[in-house]
Amino acid sequence: MRRSLPSVGTVPNPPRDYADLLLAPVALEIDQRLQDLAGLDRDALHKKVVLETNSEPADRAGRARDVIRSVTHVLDLHGWAAGWDDRGLRLRHHRHTLVLGLPRNIVEYVEELPAD
Fold first, then answer.
1. Is residue 36 in a domain?
2. Is residue 54 a part of any domain in this protein?
3. Which domain holds residue 58?
4. Cα(89)–Cα(77) distance, rounded to whole angstroms?
5. Are strands 88-93 and 81-85 parallel, antiparallel or unpaired?
6. Residue 60 falls within a domain, yes or no?
7. Mind listing the pLDDT tens digit for each residue in 73-83?
8. Looking at the domain assignment, is residue 103 inside a domain?
């Protein structure tokens, strides 16, 4: 007697290219880097971001940009773009997006500067 497998349905957004397939390793590496930064105090976090970006901005937007640059420093994103989002670190590729949460110390570090 032949048994049939249960129906799982269709994948809502199947991967279209290698960049889509490589999202998991990229997201996992970035998440690990965020977790590593979460363990730093404010001064150690500042030193790491400044050293990796060679920049010390005077406003939130610049600091948010530098945090993202630091987290993705020497990381092959495989076509994904990383950016700051009100909800966290957003990865984008074509129509696909994914937001990774940011540790509290990183959010506080960015928000200590004026908005403009």
1. yes
2. yes
3. 20-111
4. 13
5. antiparallel
6. yes
7. 999 999 999 99
8. yes
